UniProtKB/TrEMBL annotation:
It comes from Chloropicon primus. The lineage of its organism: Eukaryota, Viridiplantae, Chlorophyta, Chloropicophyceae, Chloropicales. Residues 1-25 are annotated as: Disordered. This is OBG-type G domain-containing protein. Signal peptide: none annotated. Residues 162-261 form the G domain. GO terms for molecular function: GTP binding. Residues 1-156 form the NOG1 N-terminal helical domain. Pfam families: MMR_HSR1 (PF01926), NOG1_N (PF17835). Gene3D superfamilies: 1.20.120.1190, P-loop containing nucleotide triphosphate hydrolases.
């Protein structure tokens, strides 16, 4: 993923470099040297502006080259259509700069006098600057998209992935913290986890991925928020999955046990192939205390 220079910084540094262009010493005639310096300056600004744009267009991954999970995340975070449209706009700006820059550099090199070439230089630099200046919003968006894409989890499709799923606030992140290298935030409110992040753990020399997910509520896809969409994308598109379905039976998490069971049933029905690799986990057992003197095993009360 290429580093995107902020719009103003890029233009500023490009213009400073143009000022440093010196006329070629090999050309003996002072007159011709000055004319050729004008053309060189136009070439320099063209390159300074267009080359990084070309690197962005090539360096940002094409949607059809992404893993389906990454494509789904891209769609949910920045919108795949918007992403493709933006890259195509950046490419359009690059071409516009190349065309205008080349045309003006060629005009400058054909001038009969340094004064005439100077005027073409001034005009040409102005044209290039204007094309780029108008694209401040485009470049700001590109910078934002780059930041978003960098935050997407790196998924190794060859590794088995343990996905922690369940209602919000049931203790998924707490488990990820104790089981793996992942360091998600743990808080006593729903939707603390807002993104998908990968952690790793090793058992007997084998490496595994583990991912925390945002909580799911018992509701239809239309009603679900973007964070729940990320969890569904992980379940739908990651290969080689083991589902660790986390439930809080204390009723403290904010989702009733019935709703948690409904979510569990929904995932199992939607992804029946996952039944074979499914582990139910019950958290917050420490809040459960068994009163042996009042009915023995099976008689329970919620502890504090
Ligand atoms: N008593 C007790 N509290 C726990 C246990 N596991 C988690 N908690 C608490 O439950 C709250 C929620 O924990 P998280 O790990 O953030 O839950 P989550 O499922 O990741 O929540 P979201 O990211 O919002 O979906 C926090 O206050 C944790 O400290 C447990 O085993 N016992
Ligand atoms: Mg969490």
């Amino acid at each position: 993923m290429p580093q995107v220079a902020p719009h103003g910084e890029h233009l500023g540094s490009a213009l400073r470099r143009v000022n440093r262009v010196t006329p070629p010493k090999t050309v003996k005639s002072k007159h011709k040297r000055e004319i050729s310096a004008c053309a060189m300056k136009l070439d320099a600004l063209t390159k300074e502006l267009a080359v990084p744009l070309g690197k962005y267009v090539k360096g940002f991954p094409a949607v059809d080259r992404l893993h389906p999970f990454e494509a789904a995340l891209l769609h949910l975070t920045v919108g795949a259509d918007k992403y493709e449209a933006l890259l195509s706009r950046v490419n359009g700006v690059r071409k516009k700069i190349l065309d205008a820059g080349k045309a003006n550099a060629s005009r400058a090199s054909k001038c009969k006098s340094p004064k005439e070439a100077g005027l073409v230089l001034e005009e040409g630099l102005g044209v290039l600057e204007n094309i780029y200046k108008k694209e401040e919003t485009t470049m700001d968006k590109l910078l934002y998209f780059a930041q978003q894409l960098r935050r997407l989890p790196f998924v190794d499709p060859k590794l088995e992935t343990f996905v922690l799923a369940g209602a919000p606030n049931v203790g998924k992140s707490s488990l990820v913290v104790s089981l793996s290298s992942g360091q998600p935030e743990v808080c006593n409110y729903p939707f603390t986890t807002k993104t998908i992040k990968m952690g790793h753990f090793d058992v007997a020399g084998e490496r595994y991925q583990v991912t925390d997910t945002p909580g799911l509520l018992s509701r239809s896809d239309e009603e679900r928020n973007e964070m729940e969409g990320l969890t569904m994308a992980a379940l739908e598109h990651l290969d080689n999955l083991v589902v660790l379905f986390v439930m809080d039976l204390t009723g403290e998490c904010g989702t009733t046990v019935k709703d948690q069971l409904d979510i569990r049933r929904e995932i199992m029905t939607r992804f029946p192939e996952m039944k074979a690799k499914w582990v139910d986990i019950f958290t917050k057992a420490d809040m459960f205390s068994i009163k042996e003197d009042e009915g023995g095993a099976g008689s329970t009360e919620w502890g504090g």
